[in-house]
Amino acid sequence: MTAILSRPAAALLLLALYLLMCAAVWWRHRRRQRQAAAESAALLPAADAGPPVLVLHASQTGQAEEIAWQTARALHLAGMPVRVAALGEVDREALRGARHALFIASTYGEGDAPDSAAPFARDLMAAQASDAATGLDLSSLQVGVLALGDATYTHFCGFGRALDAWLRERGARSMFDRIEADRTDEHALSQWRQRLSHLAGTADLAEWEAPVFTDWRLAARRHLNPGSQGGPVFHLELVPAGGSPLPAWEAGDLVQVSVAGEAAHAAHAAHAAGAADAIDDDARRPREYTIASLPADGRVELMVRRTAREDGSPGLASGWLTERLAVGGDVALRLRPHASFRIGANADRPLILVGNGTGLAGLRAHLKVRAQTRMNTGNGAVRAWLLFGERQSAHDAHYRDEIEAWQRDGVLARVDWAFSRDQAERVHVQHLLAREAPRLREWIADGAAIYVCGSLQGMAGAVDAVLRETLGEADVDALIREGRYRRDVY
Ligand SMILES: Cc1cc2nc3c(=O)[nH]c(=O)nc-3n(C[C@H](O)[C@H](O)[C@H](O)COP(=O)(O)OP(=O)(O)OC[C@H]3O[C@@H](n4cnc5c(N)ncnc54)[C@H](O)[C@@H]3O)c2cc1C
Ligand SMILES: Cc1cc2nc3c(=O)[nH]c(=O)nc-3n(C[C@H](O)[C@H](O)[C@H](O)COP(=O)(O)O)c2cc1C
User: Model-level pTM?
Assistant: First the structure.
């Protein structure tokens, strides 16, 4: 450029381009804010319409929240005032003051509340003994509960059931029996819509928008850990098929992959082989994968581990995505906002990123944002600390070059790798975090937020225990309430 333009002119041009880019980012941010405000305003009650129906969601990965918004829109279009909120955002007064409340609650862990509702479960639901004294009387509240769960778990709809029982113990009256949806099955959801019609007093409640899957093309696939003792992990790159524009998403979001086509193919092959038993009863349930890239990369990147079933055969979705699907082939996919794993109000906070295995995907997306911000603004004040666990350093240090470059550039102030099989004793991220307890306290005192991504079993629970041990129960609950402790665990 300086060959054509003088140095000052080139510098001015670069500055102008930079300012233009800042303006575009600001404008996009404002547009999103306006959209969100318009969406909430559209649901605000008319002045004389009476207290709104509370539509409360307890959601980890967004399904319950999505259904809550669909519920609210349908009731609003039927003329009812509604207010949507996360269960964790409401207190005793809000519940006492309401006349009707609908609860859409999923279950996590082993029959537990989703993270955002955990303090509600502990503070309100577990405080039964003190209720007699404080008198939480919900007898003027009419409620309906939709419990989301998965019947393959021992405690099916555990949290939805506990919530329903607690509401009734506090005197709330059920408008209808609790509805339980096994993997968001259509029958249960249509029952829920029927109940909403009754509540709204209309036979023609607006139809819900069905989730829309669109075709994406597998543009590239790379085996990340050849020679590993662990299951093979692949880096996948996907672009919209047919040159469609790339939709927007944020770090922390997920994709859902539809396996219906692949399942039909597998069922056909099983039938042809006379193995009708092998037909998968789980084939309509889409599979979730955390996005490892940003729109600025021009593609959705995923880290997918090929799971092995008990009989050794590959998992339906992961086997297809990592093996049978040819590069250039199409995948039906949809993007899912994952509000509880986005950066939210933590953009300017130090970040402690903890993960294992394919959990690096979500952490990588957040680090990419930090790297981008640093490049665009030169702002290196906010620190990030990565603790990542896998099996062997020789095979499983996924994206090592990128991570080391972020360390050199100051995007990452600190990296701790936990390679469990590199030495005789097993070392995992939770052990490193416990060892670094003073540093953990110091970062939290400095306002850091904690993001945990990867295995629920073996990792997330143990990390949670270390956090509670190091920081104390009350402080960890406060971090959850402030949105400073977020998880994408599975
Ligand atoms: C919020 C969320 C984010 C996810 N992000 C990712 C990601 O980024 N990368 C990724 O590879 N996977 C991710 N997963 C897991 C993914 O959605 C699928 O569950 C996984 O690929 C297995 O699906 P499958 O169809 O291949 O296996 P299936 O045909 O469903 O069979 C899987 C078999 O393995 C077992 N199994 C399934 N999942 C697990 C697990 N996580 N741990 C242990 N055993 C299991 C089951 O019990 C079953 O026997 C995520 C899941 C959730 C809920
Ligand atoms: C890691 C994990 C643990 C889960 N544990 C349970 C459980 O104990 N009981 C249950 O009924 N469902 C369980 N589920 C299923 C979820 O409740 C169900 O998928 C729900 O639709 C998710 O809704 P959400 O996106 O709003 O969080 C679990 C799901 C995951 C990924």
Answer: 0.85
